[in-house]
């Protein structure tokens, strides 16, 4: 297991010497201590990434196709170690091992391979402008890219960020979520193993308000990519404006509507809606957390959904029968229970679940609320938990809007 | 140097290897050998090893041919199975360096083509494993095939050198590298072939699908057997087509080994079918076939015309052609002279001159003409002929007697028509198909050696005075494949490259090719492009689907 900062292809303690614990959410126990990056470490990492990006450097001089080859090799190495990585992901994040192994890991490998293929195909143009000129465009890498990733799909988010950035020739300073740093650090060792030059990828476990903020406001980071809550997304964009106007891309929260019309196949729709919400313990930005069901099938749909939720197997994520593991940490656990309370308080109908599912770890029962009105808190705010709201959808055909 | 037989054993550490390898493996290298100028033809052996195998410091030992290589595959490959020919006939396969018979392979004719097309057609049906496979899986298979070629690189390079007479080290570092890279390049494209959504007028939702064309017939030549095989199958398979490919009768061995690797990699049966055979029989059957949707041909312009006629005569199958060239290489007085001489030399003499791209009309600006000729002759004289398997050999034999005779005939015409024979001009060695590196100067545009494609180690050096004149003379040909321009003046470079009627123009380099860059000719050098993103168009059929919607919004 790797537990330190990864800068310039080297493992190192934080400048401050500080560490933080990472917890197994199934038990609440500490897995290990991990070095905690702060502003000074971000500075070091940005310097390393900056050097690796200089004209004439091995990374800048490399054939684009060779960047692709390195990405493919990284994919191969991850594939080789997928059983281990899936275990580590489950230990640190709580998602069922069966899902980590059959969904997260293969998608990580596919993502990296996909971008490996793009590396030497990202083409500029020649353009027939007016005048006696020869005009062409080059698609150049932006430079040092700060990437801040969340805890819900640690490996997958890492791949989604690294794939396109490296394929196009950038260098990276990545801050991984403090809840789930372990798999990203293991991948760092593979990045070194397969031959990425030093400084191309730097990985820093650390906290948002310290390391994350340092990246977002850094004067030598050319772009920041963030996946996480909309609340923090606001901060990132502001930080860019306050510092060097670095390019910003944001993948934030959702309260995604899932609209079920009465001509849908009932069984499929129930199962898909169940999956849409409950996948990954409900910890998905795209969770279908507002299920709109057309009036004439509403009752049956709710009944079936409740029955399905009641059947959901919650338990030890290493047990292959488990469908739902714990929530990722105490904070999320508390927040979700808070929303459930608000649902009850504001008059939604609790159809099943609504409480804690085990006496240790952060397990919550699969919960279904019916008769949810659009103005209720649970209909408006992102819960990020195993809690689905269903609303009546009237007048669909006539009004044409939902 | 004596020519030895098949399966010659190499003694270790040829001391002359280093300077030699520097010369031919780095066909296009800048004097400082840097990686920026990268392509399939010019990484030095040490650089190649570094990039493929991670960071290994220091000199690498030269790869050696496999002694007594097994020739395992000699039958027709249809539906992932090995078949004898329907007629029972076989093709003798010779080692052009020695004249020895290497083996016999099954000879495909029209009936075998029919079988193969039926297999390819069945494999192309909707719902088949190949059609219903994720596009990314097609890419994955191509990458696996590249891995297998890499595994068998020494064997393939040995077979290629034995079968075609090309220098083994060239086969290893150039042909094999290009093959691997091309397969990987198209492996990456497979799931990135995007159709579009299009804002048409009216209440419609319109999109295009970029579908595979179908069954593709592919006919490839003997000068780069393996590399041509990869250039053909990679884009075709990447786009989801199925293939019936006929390697040249002179050089079937590497293609048949590839067939075995294709099966090993996991391509479903019928996706690729390999049929060694003759042009007039199997090739003709392919180009006339009513159930082949597209034919791709690389070879002579004369045969290219037959293919196009056959397509028109049969089912109007789509046609792409990569044909001959009589490529101008224009050297201005303000160039780096030594470098230009070397580039012009390798630009002609590479692969025994058997290259559609050969820079066979070297136009040199008058002020440097004499010096250029003198240095070119000196360079040509330093060439080492002999057994292509041995390190230290620069030039092997021509492919066969027919080519040999044609080249000698053209050389004689050069002498007869009054060009100055500076060096060479005769066969070399006691036996076989070797021709001395030959340089003609004072060549005028109306001589046969200035107009016809020689396809041999014969360099023509002509003189020019003005930029306008040389552009006009360079373009005065039915061909239009490639061209070179050597100058340090950016304006000259841009002006001349815009004016040349050539599908590829090289500025201060020659033969700089890479899987990402499109390859093909203007005029009678061909139709369509191979390599790069452009090749995808040639293996794709566009379908526009328009769906009525109740209300369009932008």
From TrEMBL, chain A:
InterPro entries hit by this protein: Ald_DH/histidinol_DH (IPR016161), Ald_DH_C (IPR016163), Ald_DH_CS_CYS (IPR016160), Ald_DH_CS_GLU (IPR029510), Ald_DH_N (IPR016162), Aldehyde_DH_dom (IPR015590)
Enzyme class name: oxidoreductase
Every Aldehyde dehydrogenase domain range: 11-386
Superkingdom of this protein's organism: Eukaryota
A GO molecular function held by the record: aldehyde dehydrogenase (NAD+) activity
Active site positions: 251
Name of the protein: aldehyde dehydrogenase (NAD(+))
Organism: Lates japonicus
From TrEMBL, chain B:
InterPro entries recorded: Ald_DH/histidinol_DH, Ald_DH_C, Ald_DH_CS_CYS, Ald_DH_CS_GLU, Ald_DH_N, Aldehyde_DH_dom
Domain annotation Aldehyde dehydrogenase: ranges: 82-545
Catalytic residues in the record: 322
Positions of region (Disordered): 1-67
GO molecular function: aldehyde dehydrogenase (NAD+) activity
Enzyme class: oxidoreductase
Ranges annotated as biased composition (Polar residues): 26-48
Pfam family, one: Aldedh
Keywords, in A-Z order: NAD, Oxidoreductase
EC number(s) recorded for this UniProt protein: 1.2.1.3
Cleavable signal peptide: none
UniProt record similarity statement: Belongs to the aldehyde dehydrogenase family.
Protein name (record): aldehyde dehydrogenase (NAD(+))
């Amino acid at each position: 297991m790797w537990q330190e900062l990864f800068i310039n292809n080297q493992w190192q303690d934080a400048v401050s010497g500080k560490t933080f614990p990472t917890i197994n959410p199934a038990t609440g126990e500490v897995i290990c201590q991990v070095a905690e990056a702060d502003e000074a470490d971000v500075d070091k990492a940005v310097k390393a990434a900056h050097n690796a990006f200089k004209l004439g450097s091995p990374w800048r001089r490399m054939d684009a196709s060779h960047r692709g080859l390195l990405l493919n090799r990284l994919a191969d190495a991850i594939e080789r170690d997928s059983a281990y990585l899936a275990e580590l992901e489950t230990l640190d994040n709580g998602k069922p091992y069966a899902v980590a192994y059959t969904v997260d890991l293969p998608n990580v490998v596919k993502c990296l391979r996909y971008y490996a293929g793009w590396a030497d195909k990202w083409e500029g143009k020649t353009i027939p402008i007016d005048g006696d000129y020869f005009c062409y465009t080059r698609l150049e890498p932006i430079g040092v890219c700060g990437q801040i990733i969340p805890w819900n799909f640690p490996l997958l988010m890492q791949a989604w960020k690294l794939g396109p950035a490296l394929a196009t020739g950038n260098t990276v300073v990545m801050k991984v979520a403090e809840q789930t740093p372990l798999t990203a650090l293991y991948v760092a060792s593979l990045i070194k193993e397969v031959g990425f030059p030093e400084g191309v990828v730097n990985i820093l476990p650390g906290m948002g308000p310290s390391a994350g903020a340092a990246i977002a406001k850094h004067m030598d980071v050319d772009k920041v990519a963030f996946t996480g809550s909309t609340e923090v997304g606001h901060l990132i964009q502001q930080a860019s404006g306050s510092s060097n106007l670095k390019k910003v891309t944001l993948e934030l929260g959702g309260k995604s509507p899932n609209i079920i019309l009465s001509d849908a196949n009932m069984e499929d729709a129930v199962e898909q809606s169940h999956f849409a919400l409950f996948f990954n313990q409900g910890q998905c930005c795209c969770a279908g957390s507002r299920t709109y069901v057309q009036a004439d099938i509403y009752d049956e749909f709710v009944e079936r959904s409740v029955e399905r939720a009641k059947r959901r197997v919650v338990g030890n994520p290493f047990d292959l029968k488990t469908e739902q593991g714990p929530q990722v940490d105490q904070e999320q656990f508390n927040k979700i229970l808070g929303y459930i309370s608000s649902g009850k308080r504001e008059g939604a109908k609790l159809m099943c679940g609504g409480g804690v599912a085990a006496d240790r770890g952060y397990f919550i029962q699969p919960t279904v609320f019916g008769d949810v009105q659009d103005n209720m808190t649970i209909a408006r705010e992102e819960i990020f938990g195993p809690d689905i709201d269903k609303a009546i959808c009237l007048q669909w055909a006539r009004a044409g809007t939902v | 140097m004596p020519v030895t037989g098949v399966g010659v054993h190499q003694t270790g550490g040829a001391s002359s290897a280093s300077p030699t390898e520097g010369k031919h493996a780095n066909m296009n290298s800048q004097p400082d050998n840097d990686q920026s100028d990268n392509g399939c033809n010019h990484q030095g052996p040490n650089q190649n090893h570094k990039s493929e195998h991670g960071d290994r410091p220091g000199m690498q030992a030269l790869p050696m041919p496999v002694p007594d290589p097994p020739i395992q595959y000699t039958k027709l490959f249809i539906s992932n199975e090995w078949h004898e020919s329907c007629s029972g006939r076989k093709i003798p396969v010779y080692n052009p360096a020695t004249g020895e018979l290497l083996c016999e392979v099954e000879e495909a004719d029209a009936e075998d083509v029919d079988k193969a097309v039926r297999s390819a057609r069945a494999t192309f049906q909707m719902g088949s494993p190949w059609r219903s496979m994720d596009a990314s899986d097609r890419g994955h298979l191509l990458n696996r095939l590249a891995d297998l070629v890499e595994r068998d690189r020494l064997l393939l390079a040995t077979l290629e050198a034995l079968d075609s007479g090309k220098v083994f080290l060239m086969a290893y570092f150039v042909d094999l590298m290009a093959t691997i890279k091309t397969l990987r390049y198209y492996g990456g494209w497979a799931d990135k072939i995007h159709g579009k959504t299009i804002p048409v007028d009216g209440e419609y939702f319109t999109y295009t699908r970029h579908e595979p064309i179908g069954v593709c017939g592919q006919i490839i030549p003997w000068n780069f057997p393996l590399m041509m095989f990869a250039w053909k199958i990679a884009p075709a398979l990447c786009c989801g087509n199925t293939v019936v490919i006929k390697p040249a009768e002179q050089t079937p061995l590497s293609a048949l080994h590839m067939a075995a690797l294709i099966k090993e990699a996991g391509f479903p049966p019928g996706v690729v079918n390999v049929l060694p055979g003759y042009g007039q029989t199997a090739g003709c059957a392919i180009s006339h076939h009513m159930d082949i949707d597209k034919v791709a041909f690389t070879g002579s312009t004369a045969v290219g015309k037959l293919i196009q006629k056959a397509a028109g005569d049969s089912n109007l199958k789509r046609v792409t052609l990569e044909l001959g060239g009589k490529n101008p290489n224009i050297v201005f007085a303000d160039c780096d002279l030594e470098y230009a001489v070397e580039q012009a030399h390798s630009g002609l003499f590479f692969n025994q001159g058997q290259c559609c791209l050969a820079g066979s009309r070297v136009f040199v600006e008058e002020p440097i003409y004499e010096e250029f000729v003198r240095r070119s002759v000196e360079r040509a004289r330093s060439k080492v002929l002999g057994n292509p398997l041995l390190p230290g050999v620069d030039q092997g034999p021509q492919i066969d007697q027919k080519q040999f005779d044609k080249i000698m005939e053209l050389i004689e015409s050069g002498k007869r028509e009054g060009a100055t024979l500076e060096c060479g001009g005769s066969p070399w060695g006691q036996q076989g198909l070797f021709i001395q590196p030959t340089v003609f100067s004072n060549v005028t545009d109306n001589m046969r050696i200035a107009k016809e494609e020689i396809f041999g180690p014969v360099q023509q050096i002509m003189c020019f005075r003005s930029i306008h004149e040389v552009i006009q003379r360079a373009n005065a040909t039915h061909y239009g494949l490639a061209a070179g321009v050597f100058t340090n003046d950016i304006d000259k470079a841009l002006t001349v490259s815009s004016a040349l009627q050539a599908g590829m123009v090289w500025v201060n380099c020659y033969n700089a090719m890479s899987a990402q860059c499109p390859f093909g000719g203007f005029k009678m050098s061909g139709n369509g492009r191979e390599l790069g993103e452009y090749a995808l168009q040639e293996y794709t059929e566009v379908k526009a689907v328009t769906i009525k919607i109740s209300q369009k919004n932008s």
